[in-house]
Design brief:
Length: 338
């Protein structure tokens, strides 16, 4: 994360700002309110941490350059969710600009305190807690599994109650465990549970879908999904390229972040409560998000095929050449950090 910090933080911020700007301008040109377009930009800027990281881990790409850049941007997006929540009342006209800025400042302070507390607990409490659970579960693994899941849920709950986000709390819990000697043991223990949670998550998405509306407007839905993929891929790839990465790496990062994330459902629900998005727009955004998540695995499988098209071969060099380039880039970035 230290190596890809600049593109993760500045690139992630640029992606959110550019999408907000593009959607805001588009909304004004179409006769809609600027606030509606800005919200759609916030909504579209979120990508799916769960889906993308799972794919990278399965392909052993999480330690490759494009994988590290992608994960870095995803982490920044998760951290920015709380600030986007503070922006929603301003867009909905329920609070003034000064009040919105004050809310963002308060959230930044809370975020700093939360991360500081987590850092202290990482070396003072977490190793002792996991060691105790290991001793108590020497004959059965269920106790350790429950303890690990409970710890992650507690961290997510605290983060949510502080006005941040569930995803941020879950991520922080994972980082806290990863710094201990029990990281691999914990990962092995929770592997079966992860698939269960993934199934529950996809089921919950299905329950939100209004099938009749989507079937009636299937042409608009497909056009929206294609537009989202093209725009997000282009914007993210251009931003990544601007930080000095190769065209191949930038393209892969862009495609990996081309979907709309699961946390967009929470943003959409909050915006609906504030009457910022209602009616057909709400259902369309809901369907677009769900469809983009469902088609993401297929899109990932198309990445090698696209990069090996004859017309594009001069843009995407051979795998060995890219690996050498990525090693040089990693060393260069690391030396700059030092």
């Amino acid at each position: 994360l230290k190596v890809v910090g600049p593109v993760a933080v500045l690139g992630g911020l640029l992606q959110i700002v550019i999408l907000m700007f593009l959607c805001g301008i588009t909304a004004m040109l179409c006769g809609a309110k600027l606030s509606d377009g800005v919200f759609v930009g916030c909504f579209l800027s979120m990508s799916s941490t769960a889906v993308v990281v799972k794919f990278l881990v399965e392909k052993n790409s999480n330690n490759i350059l494009h994988g590290q850049v992608t994960i870095g941007i995803l982490i920044f997006q998760d951290c920015a969710v709380g600030l986007l929540f503070a922006l929603l009342p301003v867009l909905g006209g329920n609070s003034g600009i000064l009040q919105g800025m004050a809310s963002m400042g308060k959230l930044l302070l809370v975020l700093s305190l939360y991360l500081t507390t987590a850092s202290v607990l990482t070396w003072s409490f977490v190793p002792r807690f996991l060691k105790l659970m290991t001793h108590l579960s020497s004959q059965t693994n269920e106790l350790y599994q429950l303890a690990a899941v409970a710890f992650c849920l507690l961290s997510a709950w605290c983060s949510d109650k502080l006005g941040l986000s569930l995803e941020l709390g879950s991520f922080v819990a994972g980082v806290m465990i990863s710094t201990t000697d029990f990281a691999q043991h914990t990962l092995d223990q929770v592997e079966p549970i992860r698939n269960l949670f993934a199934a529950l998550f996809l089921s919950s998405i299905g329950m939100l879908i209004h099938v009749q509306f989507l079937w009636t407007h299937v042409d608009i839905l497909l056009a929206s999904v294609i537009l989202v993929i093209v725009v997000k891929t282009t914007v993210t790839a251009m931003i990544t390229k601007a930080f000095g990465y190769s065209i191949r790496t930038s393209f892969v990062v862009g495609v990996l972040l081309a979907q709309i994330g699961e946390f967009a459902f929470v943003l959409l629900s909050r915006a609906s409560n504030l009457h910022l998005v209602e009616g057909k727009m709400y259902l369309l955004l809901l369907g677009t998000t769900a469809f983009s998540l469902v088609t993401t695995p297929v899109l990932f499988k198309l990445i090698p095929a696209v990069m090996h098209l004859g017309v594009l071969m001069h843009w995407f060099p051979s795998e060995s050449g890219v690996q050498n380039e990525e090693k040089v880039a990693m060393i260069d970035l690391y030396n700059r950090q030092l």
